[in-house]
Amino acid sequence: MAINTDTAISWFEARKGKVSYSMDYRDGPNSYDCSSSVYYALMSAGAISAGWAVNTEYEHDWLIKNGYKLVAENQDWDSQRGDVFIWGMRGQSSGAGGHTGIFIDSDNIIHCNWGKRGISVDNYDTVAAASGWMYCYVYRLESGASTQGKSLDTLVKETLAGKYGNGDVRKAALGNQYEAVMAVINGKAAAPKKTVDQLAQEVIQGKHGNGEDRKKSLGPDYDAVQKRVTEILKGSTSGNTPKTPSDAPKSEVVNSTTEPKTEETGATGKATDTKITKEDGDLSFNGAILKKSVLDVILAKCKEHNILPSYAITVLHFEGLWGTSAVGKADNNWGGMTWTGKGERPSGVTVTQGTARPANEGGHYMHYASVDDFLTDWFYLLRSGGSYKVSGAKTFSEAIKGMFKTGGAVYDYAATGYDNYLVGMSSRLKAIEAENGSLAKYDTATVTDVGSTDKIEVNIEGIEISINGVTYTLSKKPV
């Protein structure tokens, strides 16, 4: 059957308040992350399987194979129910570097997220602003022939008549009826019958839909499978069904120490990033953790260069998610610093060519041997007498202004411009402080003669941000 948007949204609604968020235990039934929840929701609604719960990097191609079309890339659009958004530029959106969810109407989304520790409905603009208006892609299901409620015989006849196309287009159109239809067309026997336990696990993962769709998909096995599903969800010990942990670690992140990241071998034999859990003295936001060991280095660098810690802490999350972005993990590069072709930096740090930048930008990132090296190089860039006027700034907004020509910088730090960067950074600061308390305590303990704290107010209903009395109105267009 073709994907039914209402069924996908109902999958989310049925689990709201009942499941937790986890990037480690992301395959349900008790916890999911943003991309696995979208995957299983669409699977329940008739999507073809990818063989695994795709992440935000692979979600793009999977959506296209399922009949979705890219309708907007980092630009404004008229959103509607069923639109799927993916945040984070391709190649950089893995882990905490991206996010995804589904629109339930033109303004609101349903998504599994760290902030609410599970599935919630939120205003899109509010969440996007708090996340710093990340690079955004929007996919929309293309209208096509419906298979809803049709018998296998009818689907076979319509397929032979060319109604559902060929290849991946046919797979997307027929959904979980594809194999059955093709078996009849090719004159082959049906696939080997699955056990009740196997079918029950597929139901829990959302592969057979709900209600009448599930009955049609399971056929004569429906009653037995449904009984087994009930036993599993109630915690029955009968059978050999593996149990899934219901309480995943709440705050884990990759590569949050000042040393190069290490790897350990998991049960699959593949190398996996070492996980680090939040401890006293650490900062956390949206699933990323800034370890106290790194925070202490940042504070020392701020003191050395007379830079406000609240500014440095925020910009390092705004630019590199405290090392959990793709380039942060691969290259210890928390700021997206571009490879210049020279290994010796003016700061005295030695760098090498890192991973490739997005195709539309060209070039490569710098690769740092350690996070310490990156911080040394990055703070040197912001030093007094350098290209930017961040050193010596007494307020958060003054430091941001010093990153741009309007504030005396030689170059603009970001192509988005001062106003957009100020709004994004201010929103991120407030979001980080909502989870950790005010960062002003680091300013007063590190920098002398700190100015008055900026007055930043976020008007959720009006989607406005007021910074020191100046009001900025937000739009849906990412910046």
SSE map:
Blueprint: H1 5-15, E1 20-21, E2 31-32, H2 34-44, H3 56-65, E3 68-73, E4 84-87, E5 99-103, E6 108-113, E7 118-123, H4 124-130, E8 136-141, H5 152-160, H6 167-174, H7 178-185, H8 196-204, H9 211-218, H10 222-233, E9 252-254, E10 263-265, E11 271-273, E12 275-277, E13 283-285, E14 288-290, H11 292-305, H12 309-320, H13 326-331, E15 351-356, E16 364-368, H14 371-381, H15 396-401, H16 418-436, H17 440-446, E17 456-459, E18 464-467, E19 470-473
Parallel strand pairs: 1-2
Antiparallel strand pairs: 3-8, 4-5, 4-8, 5-6, 6-7, 9-12, 10-11, 13-14, 15-16, 17-18, 18-19
Write a structural description:
The chain folds into three domains: 5-143, endopeptidase fold (from Nostoc punctiforme); 195-238, no CATH class; 253-259 and 274-473, Lysozyme (Orthogonal Bundle). 35% of the residues lie in helices and 16% in strands. It has 17 helices and 19 strands. The chain has helices spanning 5-15, 34-44, 56-65, 124-130, 152-160, 167-174, 178-185, 196-204, 211-218, 222-233, 292-305, 309-320, 326-331, 371-381, 396-401, 418-436, 440-446; strands spanning 20-21, 31-32, 68-73, 84-87, 99-103, 108-113, 118-123, 136-141, 252-254, 263-265, 271-273, 275-277, 283-285, 288-290, 351-356, 364-368, 456-459, 464-467, 470-473. A hairpin with a 5-residue loop joins strand 10 (263-265) and strand 11. Helix 8 packs across helix 10 and helix 11 (292-305) packs parallel to helix 14 (371-381). The chain is elongated, with a radius of gyration of 25 Å. Mean pLDDT is 78; it is low at 188-192, 236-274, 459-463 and 474-479.
